[in-house]
Amino acid sequence: MISSIPKWVGDLFESTLRPNVKVLETSYLSSQIKKIRFQGDISKMNFEIGYANVLRVSETEYRNYTAAYYNKAKAIIDIIFHIHTNGVGSEYFDSLKADDETFIGPSRGKKLYNPSIENQFFFGDETSLGLACALLPLMKNNHHQFQFYFELDEENKNVPKLLGLENFTVFPKDGSFRNEKKVNELPICKTTDWLSANYILTGNVKSVQTFRKVLKHKVTGRIFHQGYWLEGKKGL
């Protein structure tokens, strides 16, 4: 997905897709997790599960985020941001406050959800919380059996509960999901009840790769995967 382009291209791109959105309200769920509600013309956006919107964070930099919630009738969209470093994206979203205006581009990406499968499993980290929130009402409305696994920093361990997520387990971010032996020992990998489940793996690229490698040798269900960030890689 797009992360940076020349300024003149960005200006042309943005002017074509106006109007911008306005920040209605912001809230911090932890020192690292910020939720922002925007209002603007989202009528033509496609909020397919797995799709993301591009947001402009500087004259040349863009970042991609999944809508946690949207309401086209009210023209509102909620996005959850992981404020974790001194990077340009984190600094920009940390600074946004009510009545600020910004640019949100159209949604695009790849599908990560098959509604026809009864059992649904989701894995992610702080960068995956928005997608998890978008998935929850679909899981419930479609009467799925579902489980969420999150690897989170200690200060973010209560965020899934604050977001109203259900059937989740929080694991410490201690590198366990990059260790095949430890992944094999997870409850989801030891039961036969979830062999044909729909698996959605997101978040850190290395964690996703390790989890996917283990699951490929254990399950018959489809494994959807999308890495959102990688150490040393800017604007993934």
From TrEMBL:
Please report the name of this protein according to its UniProt entry. Flavoprotein pyridine nucleotide cytochrome reductase-like FAD-binding domain-containing protein
Enumerate the SUPFAM superfamilies for this protein: Riboflavin synthase domain-like
Domain named Flavoprotein pyridine nucleotide cytochrome reductase-like FAD-binding: residues: 22-106
Read off the Gene3D superfamilies from this record.
Translation factors
Q: Which domain of life is it from?
A: Bacteria
- UniProt xrefs under Pfam families: FAD_binding_6 (PF00970)
